[in-house]
Amino acid sequence: MDLYKRIKEGTYIIAEMSANHAGSLARAKEIIHAAKESGADCIKIQTYTPDTITIDCDNKYFQISQGTWKGENLYHLYEKAYTPWEWQGELKEEAEKTGIDFLSTPFDKTAVDFLENLKVDFYKIASFEVVDTPLIEYIASKGKPIIMSTGMASLGEIEDAVKAVHSKNNNQLVLLRCASAYPAVTDEMNLKTMVNMKETFQVPVGLSDHSMGSVGAVTAVALGASVIEKHFCLGREIENPDSSFSMNPEEFKQMVSDVRQAEKAIGKVQYGPTTQETESTKFRRSVFCTKDIKKGEMITEENIRIIRPAYGIQPKYYSEVLGQKALCDIMRGTPLDFGMIGKENEYGR
């Protein structure tokens, strides 16, 4: 997959399934279809098991003390959230049949190897793994495009991660701004950081958005985002670790529509009237005769004005017109034309 070519065609929108399958393969497949129908370009899953991402330990280091998952133990949380590996080939096939791209986030080398066997086209690196440069190097060594979230990361940590990708001669990288809170609040999104990342690293950028609603996504696109990622569920009433900050199909479809409208509004650099504006140009201002003027009479501020519409001489010639004489009778309401007037020596010829 040529990711850079794809994102030049328009904002690439990823629906993150994550734990929203809630343990049901049938529901996971239904999510794929719903994501496609809601306008997503890609469905994303995560490839890990509780044992590949942490260890089964109950001491204080493995307890979550605040936020959405307060009171959970890391190992048991991942037991609830992970997508069984035996499903993933089937989910990829379902995505291909549905006509939506398939993407996964690997969390260790065994997951990368597993996804390589599935022949995935590209990879996602999660914010929490940005500091795992050995894993990043291993993913980059596969020579496939990488989308990398940068939640929590300092500039130096992002630099290290980017160098890890480039060290494997992999230059197809997209960096996503991300607020790694669940849900994220809009006033901590700091989307100017996304713009700065684009300038600093000279790569396409985007937003992994954990906030509710479309404001963050649309604003990011207006600021130059090429990729938007949002958690996607069939309904927040289907309880799982990610449901509370995921979009349902109707909300996701509205976000996609808002993003596509934003793209159209951004448009291209164009001066002069658009197709839609062409009809309106006739109602700009021009110089009109506002009193009957006899042949030979002088043109003054008393008998002409700059008014709407735009059928007469352009306003920028107004001072040049003043003091000239009428070469013919001119009725009130007539747009003034240079053929109707002349200077003293011209009139006396």
Structural features, described:
- With 349 residues, this protein is an alpha/beta fold.
- It folds into 2 domains: 3-266, TIM Barrel, CATH 3.20.20.70; 278-347, Alpha-Beta Complex (Type Iii Antifreeze Protein Isoform Hplc 12), CATH 3.90.1210.
- It has helices at residues 3-8, 25-37, 50-53, 74-81, 85-98, 109-117, 133-140, 155-166, 192-201, 215-222, 249-266, 318-321, 344-347, and strands at 12-16, 42-47, 101-106, 123-125, 146-149, 173-178, 205-209, 227-231, 286-289, 304-307, 325-326, 341-342.
- The strands form 3 sheets. An 8-stranded parallel sheet has the order 3-2-1-8-7-6-5-4. A two-stranded antiparallel ribbon has the order 9-10. Strands 11-12 form a two-stranded antiparallel ribbon.
- Strand 1 (12-16), helix 2 and strand 2 form a beta-alpha-beta unit.
- The protein is elongated, with a radius of gyration of 31 Å.
